[in-house]
Protein 1
Amino acid sequence: MNHTLLKGHARFFFHHQMQMLMQTLEGEERLIPLAEVKAVFFVRSFTGDRLRKERKEPGPDSPRLGEGVHVTFLDGETLIGRAVGYKPEDRGFYFKPADPASNNEIVYIPQTALREIVVGDLEG
């Protein structure tokens, strides 16, 4: 993984395929192997808010659908939220952050990008 951040629009993203077609914000089309991505973040805004601190624990307004998960990526970043239909034997899973105001609406996380995943009830 070379830690390159690509922003753009996923075109024809299907998690069961081995790659995805992406159009960068500059208009370049790129074919990206899913084995090379940390995650596919479906965001509200490409600019986000760098000053906002995302809540790292669930609250009463957190999503309730799915299993509670705490994921740690290979680079050390951690996310807390819910995974719908998580199965360790699958290539990846969809994740919904615990913070409903997160810029990440949903995230597709390949299993190969994870150092650890803890599955269990989230408090809140």
Protein 2
Amino acid sequence: MKAPSRDVLFQTLRGLLGEAFALHQKGAVGSRLGRAYGMADGYMRALLDLELATPNEIRILVVEERAKQLGPATQELSSDPAARDTLAA
């Protein structure tokens, strides 16, 4: 049996994230929303554990899907811890 390509794996993850974000947007709560986010989270964890994706690839994919479903982020944060401390103050 042939393993699915990275494109297929990433499309599956996009679908799982899209479903979770759509439920969030509709105001879903409780087990339904938790299950959707849990499925996406577990899938991401499997991709990372099997070294089929890097953390940065996952991060980029999540940011893209979130922006598509829920709109752009309201603020970009710096990866520099000192810069983040000044934002929090």
